[in-house]
Amino acid sequence: MQAVHFGAGNIGRGFIGSLLYQAGYHTTFVDVNDKVIEELNNKQQYNVILAAENKEQLTVKNVSGINSMQDPDSVVAGIEKADIVTTAVGPNILPIIAELIAKGLRARLASNPTELNIIACENMVGGSTLLKEKVMDHVPAEEQEKMATLFGFPDAAVDRIVPNQVNEDLLEVSVEPYYEWVVDRSAIKGEVPNIDGITFVEDLTPYIERKLFTVNTGHTVPAYIGHYMGYKTINEAMHDEKVLEILSGTLNESGEALIQTYGFDRDEHQTYIKKIIGRFQNPYISDEVTRVGRGPIRKLGAKDRLIRPASVYLETTGKEPVFLAKTIAAALSYQFDEDAEAVELQEKVAQQGYEQALQTVAGLEAGSPLVESVMKQLEEIKQLKS
């Protein structure tokens, strides 16, 4: 079986690539990093190390690589013959790879018109849906109907912490033991891929929001609160009782929003929260708060990990989201000169003030109860520095 995977970075190799290998696929990685592609073709294998006490190792074999800038025709040929196509390139790169994927699918339509599923494994809501939209922008109208019949773009929710790292072996990657890969079965074309590690569900939305409201929301607390308090790493921040208190409060609020919206079992969700907090406390994973907190404008978006759960909490309970508002306040105060979005955010704050800047980036109306809560917490969080 043949898999084409866009993105040969740590997540692509350490998460998606390792599961594809264990499912029996030969994986062709597509990337623009020539050194990584060259190493993949020379070694045709790499090691994945679990970030835990015993440091269990998996050797991923049956791999190769294509530099999409230098050899796009080989990528097209790979898609023509592939049994599955996956991505882990980051939300902003999906539109960039869409044209090449479109060329591959059009070639497949002409030479091998069989079903194929393209799964975007990105840290975002609706990644595959976005990719499909961008791919179709490069497909003639007369081919789009046939493509929609043969080619599935099932959305997915993916979850695995892959810390920033530099290893002596360029291909080796360290990942946390825990992972979750949930895929929308209803959008699959043809046979459901037999990949141990994927959970196929008929309604993906509850799982996407559970992950978004718990893992992504939770991770912002040691990132933004930790950065506000002067910590450099997530691990350092997770040793502070104040951070842990805000994290627990934030996840209880976002958890209540989930329970009220989707009917998750309360006890089971509390167990899930404890598991997520335990993951952030893993001493074998050391991530910089600035890496986890990067892109604050996107993370303060109306449908993203902070504003969305806070809004749902307000709507479903009628209560003030105190801890979520604290974290939003810290995100709104986030300053890091090496992060373009952080610089842009602080420029908005300087020009418009905190209240107007929040309304702009979060799509909130003036007088919103959430805006009022965040303005209150901007003052409250100053005590964290004392």
Describe the 3D structure.
InterPro entries: 6-PGluconate_DH-like_C_sf, 6PGD_dom2, Mannitol_1_phos_5_DH, Mannitol_DH, Mannitol_DH_C, Mannitol_DH_N, NAD(P)-bd_dom_sf. GO terms for molecular function: mannitol-1-phosphate 5-dehydrogenase activity. Belongs to the mannitol dehydrogenase family. It catalyses: D-mannitol 1-phosphate + NAD(+) = beta-D-fructose 6-phosphate + NADH + H(+). The protein is an alpha/beta fold. Helix content is 52%, strand content 14%. The chain has 16 helices and twelve strands. Helix 4 links the parallel strand 6 and strand 7. Helix 4 crosses helix 5. The longest helix is centred in the middle third of the chain and has 24 residues. The mean pLDDT is 95.
- What gross morphology would you assign? globular
SS element count, helices: 16
Gap from first CA to last CA: 59 Å
Overall pLDDT confidence: 95
Strand tally: 12
Radius of gyration: 21 Å
Helix content: 40-55%
N-to-C series of helices and strands: EHEHEEEHEHEHHEEEEEHHHHHHHHHH
The largest sheet is:
6 strands, parallel
Structural class: alpha/beta
**What strand order characterises the main sheet?**
5-2-1-6-7-8
Strand content: 5-15%
- Given as residue ranges, the uncertain stretches (5+ residues, pLDDT < 50) are none
GO biological process, one term: mannitol catabolic process
InterPro entries: 6-PGluconate_DH-like_C_sf (IPR008927), 6PGD_dom2 (IPR013328), Mannitol_1_phos_5_DH (IPR023028), Mannitol_DH (IPR000669), Mannitol_DH_C (IPR013118), Mannitol_DH_N (IPR013131), NAD(P)-bd_dom_sf (IPR036291)
EC number: 1.1.1.17
Keywords: NAD, Oxidoreductase
